[in-house]
Amino acid sequence: MRTHSIRRLSYAAAGLLAVPAQASIVEFVSSPTTNSLDMAAWAAGLGISTIDTSVDFESHPEGEILPFFYPGVTLHGENVTVAFGEGSPSGSDARPLSRGEGPLSAFQGYTSNGSVQDGWSLTVTFDSPVFAAGFMTADVFDAFGDNGILLEAFDGEDGSGRVLGSFGSAPFNFELNSTYFMGVGDEEGRIKSVRISTAVVLYGDSQYVDGVLFAAKQVTSPCPADLNGDGEVSGADLGVLLGGWGSPGATDLDGSGSTGGADLAILLGAWGPCT
User: Fold this and answer.
1) How far is CA 40 from CA 112, 185, 226, 231, 271, in A?
2) What CATH number does domain 232-273 carry, 3.30.70, 1.10.10, 2.60.40, 1.10.1330?
3) Which CATH number fits domain 25-215: 2.60.120, 1.10.10, 3.30.750, 2.60.40?
4) pLDDT for the residue numbered 60
5) CB-based burial of residue 116 (10 Å sphere; 0-12 exposed, 13-18 middle, 19+ buried)?
6) Model confidence at 89: pLDDT above 70
7) What local confidence, expressed as pLDDT, does residue 117 receive?
8) How far are the Cα atoms of 140, 145, 175, 176 from residue 88, in angstroms, in the given order?
């Protein structure tokens, strides 16, 4: 798919000079085959049993990013667009080669656009701070350590406030259609936004983000079917539930891992003012 010439830049020149993380911050970037599993296990140790995978980009329309498309998060992208596509089985086999967390058979993901040298970023702001978050990427080529991606976590909205932690991607080749997860955790639950970015894109490369995973502290609500938090279960909540049909997350009222008929029954059974 691509022919790669060897061109080396320092991490500083590529915008990937990570800053020291605070003591409570944990990275999930250095174990390409298990990063997302490691984050889930770490979150489980804090009593968080569910990783939210609702921001999967499979339902997002093709084209420009819609900032408020997914409940509970706000998206902000620079030089990125949503595109349909299938996994790419061809590409460079330059070593070190990693299969990451497995192949990506089909996707609808964020891709870098513009010219070869254009950098890009995708920032996710959470309505409420979370304990862990990360991005599932695909087809990233960083075998030479000069075409990596930077992951940052902040305690403010849209990449503002303090930088809680900053981590560069592992220097591997994830082409040949391999996925690679980059995540960060904070034991104090202060992550308000996360950003994935690169200052330059070398070799005519395409870099994809297939989805966002995050772990929020689970709070037992006296009225879980009140999905929009207005104090009653009504048509507005029904609309939210139908919008999440088939997906995990807040609309999965019975905790089965997918929103479906059982969750609809729970919502209808709770119809009316919350008590």
Assistant:
1) 28, 10, 27, 32, 34
2) 1.10.1330
3) 2.60.120
4) 86
5) exposed
6) no
7) 62
8) 11, 22, 8, 6
- What is the number of other CB atoms lying within 10 angstroms of the CB of residue 144? 17
Averaged pLDDT for residues 147-164:
95
Mean of the per-residue pLDDT values of the chain: 84
Residue 272, beta-bridge partner list: 233
Query: Between these two residues, 221 and 63, which has the higher pLDDT value?
Result: 63
Helix (H) or strand (E) holding 38: helix 35-45
How many Cα atoms occupy the beta-carbon half-sphere of 53 within 13 Å?
17
Phi-psi bin for 42: left (phi > 0), alpha (psi -120 to 50), beta?
Answer: alpha
Assess whether the region 25-215 and the region 232-273 belong to the same CATH fold.
Answer: no
- Residue 82 confidence (pLDDT) above 90: no
User: Taking the domains of the chain in order of start, what are their residue ranges?
Assistant: 25-215, 232-273
Residues in the chain: 275
| pLDDT value of residue 21 | 55
